[in-house]
Amino acid sequence: MQRKSPGLLTFTEPKIDGQCNEDSFQCSQRTGVFALSDGASVSFDSASWSRILVRQYAQCPDFSSEWLSAAIAKFRSRYDREALPWMQQAAFDKGSFASLLGIRFLECGALIQALAIGDSLAVLCDGDEIKMTFPYTAASQFEQRPQLLCTNPAENVFIDAPEFDSDRYAHWTFRGLEKPALLCMTDALGHWLLSWNNPQQCAIGIIRQLRTQKQFSRFVHSERAAGRMKRDDTTLLAIW
Predict the structure, then answer these.
(1) Could you tell me if 114 and 169 are in contact, meaning their C-beta atoms sit under 8 angstroms apart?
(2) What is d(CA 189, CA 121) in angstroms, rounded to the nearest whole number?
(3) Which one, 6, 94, 133, 192, has least CB within 10 Å?
(4) Alpha carbons 90 and 93: distance in angstroms, whole number
(5) Could you list the residue range(s) of the whole structural domain that residue 213 is in?
(6) 83: domain CATH number?
(7) 82-122 pLDDT, tens digit each
(8) How many structural domains comprise the chain?
(9) How many CA atoms lie within 13 A of 120 on its CB side?
(10) For residue 135, cis peptide bond before it (omega within 30 degrees of 0)
């Protein structure tokens, strides 16, 4: 699937052709709001949960406990729990999990606010040079278990911690950059990027050359076959 508008390219590739893609994204260039979410495959209907998160963020990017409660209510309204088989009831009660990477362009696009919950990665670039990454800065960080948003409120107590804002938000600017770009990607691509160690070839330069869904799909399949990219749903939002 591809959506294209001036300055923005979005691509997504499922972990297995023909299977449900649990990554979701929503973009509004008019309001300068972009959202990306990666649903956790091991949880109940994480694809629907990731879609709800990105759509709600695009409509209302002011994240809070109330914001999350509203998203959970939307998810739960999709199901009649008592009508589910008992095994699905247990999975429903445990909760669905997904990351959320939310981007807001402020002050006429000069400032960028990034909200990151989970292991989806934002990358600030100047040309082919990586200036900053968030929330991870090293490939090894992808090996830890990410803290995700859940449809079970008991799993979301971390958002009420005093350090939440300092841990989950980054503030960047395009000012002073000659060729600014912002890339948002789910964990398979983020891990690939931070693992890249070929001095003869620039990882951002490789991504910059991807202009069509066909090119992106070929790139993902090639890197998976070479063992350099994990087999997982893989999504890229590129604001060049």
Answers:
(1) yes
(2) 9
(3) 6
(4) 5
(5) 2-239
(6) 3.60.40.10
(7) 888 888 888 888 999 999 999 999 987 779 999 999 999 99
(8) 1
(9) 34
(10) yes
